Give the backbone structure.
Amino acid sequence: MKGIGFHEHGGPDVLQPVEVPDPVPGPGEAVIKVEYCALNHLDIFVREGWPGLDLPKPHILGSDVSGTIAALGLDVEGWEIGQRVVANPGLWCGKCEYCLRGEHSMCVRYGILGETRAGCYAEYVKVPAQNLMAVPDGFPMDLAASACLVSLTAWRMLINRARLRPGETVAIVGAGGGVNSMAIQIAKLAGAKVLAATSTPEKITRARDLGADIVVNYREEDWAKAAWLWSGKRGVDVVVDNVGEATWSQSIRALARGGRLVTVGATSGPKAVTDIRYVFTKQISIIGSTMGTADDFRRVMQLVWEGKLRPVVDRVLPLDRAKEGHQILEEGKQFGKIVLSISTVRDAARM
């Protein structure tokens, strides 16, 4: 099959067309004929590499997939060839102490599609059949692909880890990313009031359209001070900070007494400075979160299917422009998700 992958870690230029054997499903597995694949910051991190990451090459990126079932392995029941599906991008062992209590994203061997195994920047991708979820008839497949990882991540982050409650205040740092564009909506659905910090007039408008009560341009004013004033000089109950190093100190300062700082990433760098005096004097909690459970995925995707949460697609590019998509994502020029269309690969192959 054809796809986009890399033979060595590096910048966007390492992405190139590759041909690899078609995936064959083993017991309990399914192969999806990919229609759309959405980009995530995880793709950038894997492409760049980190110490200890040893992947078979060429490696194919991509965690978010929508398509149709092309093949089913032994012992797979309840699914049919040609059925429209998405897949939970999380991979867990099902046997460790965390899996046995339903905490799949804490699995000692946890991985993510496109990170620890071949992903969906390709014509086909193999996934555990237990990860499949049917896409309702008529639901756009580009939106379906764009919802998976970010909806799962934002749901667990806010609902299960931060324990967001109705009437609380939330500051979301960097509203243009896929996770945070969904976090705005989940926070509002939970009954919270939301301040979003973003960088351009266009992103301000779009964040408001998603339900943010107030939006701050962090290039023009101190968003943490704005959050403090907005909250009546009390501080906010929850800060969502996936930016990391560049904004961490502001996030700590913006919290109310007993507030919670929750994070699922560090796009500006991982080594932030924490003034511990704020932590103990205000009795704040710093909470990490990663992906989510199988139940989290089913619950949040059902809200997507029902239209209560709206996936945000910035643009759709053909697969052979994956490099361009990475560059846009690295520069933060998107609002929401960049999605790759795989159909152009097959069209080109038939010409």
User: Anything to note?
Assistant: The first strand starts at residue 2 and ends at 6. The chain has a mean pLDDT of 95.
